[in-house]
Structure formats: C-alpha cells, structure tokens
Amino acid sequence: MAEIRAPVKRAVLFVNLHKKNSGLVAEETRRELESRGISVTVFSFEGKPERSPQGDWDIAFSLGGDGTVLYTARSLAATGTPILPVNLGTLGFIAGVRPDEWPAVFEQWQRGTACLSRRCMLELTVERRGAAVEKNTFLNDAVISASGIAKLIKLEVHSEIVPGSYTELGFYRSDGLIIATPTGSTAYSMAAGGPILDPEMEALIISPICPFTLSNRPLVLPASPALIITVAREQRSGVLLTVDGQDAFSLEPEDRIIVQQAGRHALLISSDRRSYYAALRSKLAWSGSGDGVGHA
C-alpha cells in the first residue's frame, strides 16, 4: 500500500548551466514549486563549483545530466535528501526524468507511488603520516592514476574481509586503479574491463587500468569491509586521486586511502532498475541499435 509522504516544504535546485536551456527549466521549475507553496533555493553553477549549498531540504532537483546527479549526491551525502534527477542531456544511466515529466513524478513521490532507488555510496579518507588530509564521498568512482609522463604507478591493496584483520589483495603495478560503486560500474570501470552490476547492489569493484601483470583482473567485493590502498614509496610519476571525475587531490608516496561504505545511500526518485536496464540496452546496443557506449 502506498505511503503518503509529509508535504514538501523546502526544495533545492542544482542547476548545471552548461546544459542547454537549463536556466529556463530552472526558472519554470522554481515557479511551479513556489505555486505549490514550496520554498525554493536555486544553486546554479558552470564548470566546477567552488562551494556546495548548505541547508535543510525535503527534496533536491538535479537539473543537468548524470554528472550533475553525482555532484548533487556528494553535496547531500550527509543528509540523505531524496534527489529527483531531471535530464537535460542525452539518455543517461542515472538522470532519466525529462523536464516535462517531473511534475507527474513529483506528484507520484508525494503520494508514495514513485519508485525510490537506494544507491550505495562510498566514502574515502586519505591518511598522510598518521593524519587525515582529505575526505570525500562518491556515487560513481574514485580513480588513482599517474599525474606525470610516466604512467606506471605502484599500489598495495588490503581489505578488512575479516573484521579487525586486513587481508592483502595484491600489489598492483598499473596505469591506475578504479574503485567503483555499482552505479559507477557502467562508467570508467566498464571501459577498463570491469563488470556491470545491478545499481542497487551493496558492493564495490576494484578495476586495474592497464595492469603490468595480466593476471590482475577486476574484483568485486562487499561494500561494507574497509579497503586500504597504500601508495608505494618509490614512484616514477606523481599520483592523483580523482573522485567522480570532478574532485582531484594529489597523493604522496606512503599515503593510505581508506575506502568504506558511506553512512547513507543516495536516494534517487524515479531511477528504477527498468530505466537503468533500458539505458544499458540503448547505450550498449543490446537490442541491435543504439548510440554506442556511454558513461555514467
């Protein structure tokens, strides 16, 4: 039986101004929500935002593409605010609601009949000489790669498969390492030969990028055990950490990157398994037609 939700009183719009007509769609969305007695905060950005909005909202609208959803999810990771992803680009793996569809989807959400996809998020901490120097949360992936001309980097990976005890998974010499969520399994990880996971699984994928040892293959692990990646002492290149393809942080030899499941899921309204697999069929041309591979 559908559960009637508490009325939405406060909404925030994340507006990617790089997308065509995004300003117009944002204004129309704001007016429609305000006509319903809802207080609206509009956060517009072009390129990489210098800050994230702070506030207490009942719902967030992501107006853009999949990348806008990733940024919105990271910004709201601590609050668990439901996100309605309005797609202003081509067919995406995450953003699937067209601008003319959102009022109907919003009504369904209010009545408790709209689907809600709970997506596993991961959080990471970079430790340097015993102190935390960087923290972040991601919905798609974290990539550790070379930042210099020499591409080969060295990383050691352990996992807390048994609580309180870390098991060595391997020593990787490669162009980099991708730690992906099930949502991010269709992005860079897939391009590197990783598997595609159902988006609502509780798991993570370790995908090496062009490994020196061909037996280093992608590995799927439960999301809950902590993962520790150590940058080897000797490197021929600088090492860079990139989160969701949007946030970058320079790593140093002997840095430890600790990855574990975040305390909250990303809650995506009307991004169900059917739309996800429809996007897969289209992007990967499983039905014999499509526009080729697309990344989340």
CATH class call of the largest domain: Mainly Beta
Helix content: 10-25%
Compressed to H and E, one letter per element, the order equals EHEEHEHEEEEEEEHEEEEEEEH
For the sheet with most strands, the description reads: 6 strands, antiparallel
CA radius of gyration: 20 Å
- The N- to C-terminal Cα distance equals 33 Å
Give the low-pLDDT segments. none
The number of distinct helices, counting runs of at least 4 residues, comes to: 5
Strand residue percentage: 35-45%
Count of all domains: 2
Structural class: alpha+beta
Give the neighbour order of strands across the main sheet: 7-6-17-14-9-10
Query: How many extended strands?
Result: 18
CATH topology of the largest domain: Tumour Suppressor Smad4
CATH architectural arrangement of the largest domain: Sandwich
Structure commentary:
The longest helix is centred in the N-terminal third of the chain and has 14 residues, at 22-35. This protein has helices spanning 22-35, 66-75, 102-111, 188-191, 273-283, and strands spanning 10-16, 39-45, 59-64, 83-87, 116-119, 122-128, 131-138, 141-146, 153-162, 165-174, 176-180, 203-209, 219-222, 227-231, 239-243, 247-251, 256-261, 266-269. Helix content is 17%, strand content 38%. It is of the alpha+beta class. It has a six-stranded antiparallel beta sheet with strand order 7-6-17-14-9-10. The chain contains five helices and 18 strands. It has two domains: 10-119 and 265-283, 3-Layer(aba) Sandwich (Rossmann fold); 122-261, Tumour Suppressor Smad4 (Sandwich), CATH 2.60.200.30.
